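Thread: "does anyone have the structure for this chain?"

Original post by V.I.:
We have the sequence but no experimental structure in hand. Need at least a predicted one for the grant figures.
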Amino acid sequence: MQGYQLTFFTQQDRKHGCLPLGDWLVQEARKLGVGGATMIAATEGFGHHHKLHSAHFFELADQPIEVTMALSADDAERLFQRLREEEINVFYVKTPIEFGMTGDS
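Reply from O.Q.:
Generated one for you, tokens below.
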């Protein structure tokens, strides 16, 4: 199947409503019927403001979070539409890919 890999980059303490943004992205993808999403907590990173974000022993609020999913063009558009509706501004990378299961004929 042809589609896109979407990867969103945020921080643990960034929220949308009452949920951390990473959790919201995963839950919204699930509601839209996306086949899967993975949320990864990183050790450290920096963004467009060049501020270093990292997980500290006592405080994980600034921990970088990455949410990655493989989805069809239609699903990607529906997810971006939801982001526009919710007025969420988050950095992403969108890469054209081929995806599927190795057991599929």
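V.I.: this helps a lot. The two ends are 12 Å apart (CA to CA).
O.Q.: and The longest helix spans residues 73-85.
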